[in-house]
Give the backbone structure.
Amino acid sequence: MAKRVQARSRSVKASPKAPARRVQTPPGRPSPVKANPRGAVAPSSWPKASVSPPPGPPAGAVAAFEAAVRELQRHKYADASKRLKALLAAFPSESALLDRVRVFLGICEREMHRKPVAPRTTEERLTLATAALNNGEDSAAERLASGVLSDSPDHDLALYLMAAVLARRGDTSGALVRLQRAVAVSPDVRAQARHDTDFESLRELPGFQALLETPVNGAPALQARRAKRARSGR
């Protein structure tokens, strides 16, 4: 018969936990700094730095750029190109601004090398002459208006533009002669000339004052000119 072995239950007594030892810091030595579990510095001790946006281009560079853009908008591409090239030389470290300068400079170069289409009709030439006069390009306005007058000597608008060019140049006698011819062809020109600042040099001339006050019977000449233009298909 097999022997029975009875296992005795043994109660294991847990040994009492030893108290934590306190490390005594020797006198005169600073106590060690406790680090967080990951060894990182506490956020409260991070250095505080003021964050400010990067400085923009100098005021002088911005003003010069705006002046160049205004010249570009007036279609004065040569003047705009000169200003933009000066910006490239004066502010080489302003990369953000100079990127825009190079874009506008490319536009100027393209427009300066573009061959203008020659105007074909009288209306096209007079439109360009008027725009040239408004932009201060008196030589271009004179060339276009003279071309119209060579074909139509009694064209009222061409005569008026030539009078304005000559008045601005100081040729008061030549301006007055052409303005008188324009009023003779189209009396309505008188009202426009009365308030046109291009004729400031003529204001004190008796001939100019008489021209504005005296009605000119130019209806027959105007009707004849219109009939001639209708027959010629102009």
